[in-house]
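Researcher: Please predict.
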Amino acid sequence: MADQSYLQWPFLAEEHRTLARDLRKWCGGHIKADHPHDVDAACRALARSLGQSGWLKAATGSGKKPSVRSLCISRESLAYHSGLADFVFAMQGLGSVPISLFGSDALKKKWLNKVGEGSAISAFAISEPDAGSDIAAMKTTARRDADAFIIDGTKTWISNAGIADFYVTFCRFPEAGEKGYIALLVESNTPGLHVSERINVIAPHPLGTLEYKNCRVPAANLIGQAGAGLKIALASLDLLRSTVAAAALGFARRALDEAVSFATQRQAFGKSLSDFQMTQAKLADMALAIDASALLVYRAAWAYDTGAERVTREAAMAKLHATESAQRVIDEAVQILGGRGVVSGAVVEQLYREIRALRIYEGTSEIQKLVIASQVLKQNA
């Protein structure tokens, strides 16, 4: 990673600089290129490796509110080296943050150490066939039955489907009223839960559809209060949205470094590609986009960590700008590399496939614009 001057910005402390340095060094010795034959096995191996080396502690929060700056540093560093490693880290966080923030002491004790060690795989099940960005439109329901809850419904686009040890599942909970929702931890071996299909996407990740049919979950697996499920989901996503932007930032930094390396070595018409003003203009635009994204990412993370009640506006701006900008930066890197940029398995080709999903998951770019606009209108009302 050529430019590390951002680590000296006032948003970050010495602990974050140490984390970035140590994780970057670890990645150089432990992360391989991203083209595994068995994605499920690769994810499990990465979880074990990240856990055994202590990196997943930042993702789980170890039962406390996680440091968003540490999460962002971690995701940026991992994404720079491997989209799959970043995916594994992020999903261990997404599936465990609701437990850290709202779970009972018993749930924390049972699961967080296992997730942090990489011996258990977590998942977050909220999206449905007809409820993506509009999560309040979910149709999956839960109802009380003595000392348990019964879940019926379908969840799709679920990361880690088929390899997770548990799914934090969000459902409608009619007995709490029209706007009542519930969050339940559903262990993967629970009768009535099964993976009905796996979904293949352009950047291979374990993704699939879950079916819940008369799925009985012990009342002890309730996360937070019955009826407050939507609050739990939104609080978890609000915390983690900046980290999606950080992953995009890591992808963009790697793309710029690949473009600079190629441009300075490639000879054309008797001089290096980097001597051409058109190439220099592209590199300048890429560097500008990266620094602007980094400022937004670490502003949002700093605001959360220093006690802001909500960072809805800041996190939405960071995710929108960083993911959209990274798409452009990576596209320019492919253009600079020319034919080498579209060879299957090339670094920038992998980055091109990895970045596209980040403009969709955890809130599409269009939804981020609506969020930002609503915040602006609210603040000026």
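Model: The first helix runs from residue 14 to 30.
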